[in-house]
Amino acid sequence: MPRSTSIAAALAATFTLAPVQAAEPPPADLATMQQRLDQLERMVSQLQTQLDAERQARQKIESAAVIRPVTDGKSLKFQSPGNDFAFQVGGRVEADFAHYDADRQDLGDGTDIRRGRLYAQGTLYRDWDWRFEYEFADNSTTSTNSKGITDAYLRYKGFAPLLITAGNFKQPFGLEQMMSAHNLTFTERALSQTFVPGRGIGLGVQTSGAHWSLATAVAGERPEGDVSNEGDEGWNLTARGTYAPFVDPGRVLHVGAGVWRHEPNDSSSALRWRSKPESNVTGVFLVDTGTLTAVDDVLAGGLELAAVWGPLSLQGEYMRADVNRGSARDARFDGGYVQASWFLTGESRPYKVAEGIFDRVTPNASVGLGGIGAWELAARLSTIDLTDAGIVGGRQDDVTLALNWYLAPNLRLMLDYVQVLELDRPGNLADGDEPASLTGRVPVDF
Prior knowledge:
single chain, Porin
């Protein structure tokens, strides 16, 4: 073999073996490299965890943005899977007819749309509820104008069960007042509901427990109030508490109390209370204080008692209003009612503890789904006294008999017979008047 070839082969072997020998680090270097590999694995694991969390958050946001239609059989609602966002529209229509057996005054038979409302409501970012409702029917049992905005509020429920409401809403006072008209036993609320403050723009707070509820609010007047003509706006402070020692399906006992302070604060300090004869298809007010001037403030209180035992339901309220008139004699007015109802088909009135009210009745079997609906018989005795301290607004006692047919949870037929037992209003055409009325209603909400 030539010498040059041997040298070349030796050099090639040397360079070939050198990298192999250099690739074998000492034991100390192996331990260091293992530590670095462990660190890299931990970093990769942390990065993977962060990526998974970001992916889940993105999926949640994307799923919340997907609005799906749902229905409760009454109306259509659009909401996100997590209920963080929701939107719903609906309304109600109540068509009435009335026939009057007139005594001294002509009350006028006829028909009327008692209520015609549309609303929109929804949820924003889980903790915010809102509602806007408008009344298109221009009539009321206690005033000459009920058309306009009813509900217009924003409610925060992030502190549940504490709820904070701002806007135009019902001021908490009275059992019948706080219930939806669609859930009432009779076509109209009792005479004593003349004393309730109704709705107002303000701030309300409510909370509840397993057997109780508490609500309070401070509010001004209706959103359509003409401040430029009536002077400073009046204000109201209301509070209501309820307690139900037992609440079981078909077995409820309810007690409640409320207080209302009203200060007109306008230039005339005027106030007026009046009521129709528990039937609305007429423009006649049988009791009426007329306009009371120089009113400094009003302090009213109410007591509530109700019970449900299977198909039997009992309910009553008493209200009194003390009118403080600085330059005239103070006056005291009051009223109340007691009522009873019986479901021939076995249903019971459901109760909502969180609000201290009775909810809508659901028939055991609705008409159209193989059933005959729910049939209910009811009777009520109500009274109001608007005569005191030289104010002759009148005293009225009524008895009402009712027959209700609940075809479905949101549809029923109502028939009321109202008889004025006594009307004491000296010096007025209505004095001694004892008319009767037969009123029918077809209410539906959607």
